[in-house]
């Protein structure tokens, strides 16, 4: 009576398992975020003014410390300026302020570009709700 030898199949399965375990972390692409807490405290007065990058509903980008903060910059110009400022002051905070109408993909793409320009983490700015202060956690 002949029997099927399954040992080679088990070896192949173990090799495939190892390959998937090694390659799975390499497939992960993401942006690290500093998400705001429910109750937040204002920035210290002693701290340097944060870089605030704004993106409007049409996808134009602005920088709060540019020559004219109300003038839109090209993405390349924005990334060049932010990269230069971050090389001079690597601990400086960078905050991203986006219009409600901006697509989520645009915000994530801008965050990834900022990280590629040398920003270690990007904070998101929001506006408190109109119905008063948030309840305190207790």
Report what the structure shows.
By secondary structure, this protein is of the alpha/beta class. The protein has helices spanning about 5-25, 75-90, 105-115, and strands at about 35, 50-55, 60-65, 95-100, 120-125. The protein has a five-stranded mixed β-sheet, covered by helices on one side. Strand 2 (about 50-55) and strand 3 (about 60-65) form a beta hairpin. The model is unreliable at about 30-40 (pLDDT under 50).
Task: Summarize this structure briefly.
Helix content is 32%, strand content 13%. It has 138 residues and is an alpha/beta fold.
* Helix and strand element order: HEEEHEHE
Overall, the morphology is elongated
Question: What is the strand content?
Answer: 5-15%
Number of strands: 5
Mean pLDDT over all positions: 77
For the sheet with most strands, the description reads: 5 strands, mixed
Q: Work out the radius of gyration.
A: 23 Å
Distance between the termini: 73 Å
- The CATH topology of the domain at 30-37 and 47-124 comes to Nucleotidyltransferase, domain 5
Structural class category: alpha/beta
List the helices and strands and how they pair.
Blueprint: H1 7-23, E1 33-34, E2 51-55, E3 61-63, H2 75-88, E4 94-98, H3 104-116, E5 122-124
Parallel strand pairs: 1-5, 2-4, 4-5
Antiparallel strand pairs: 2-3
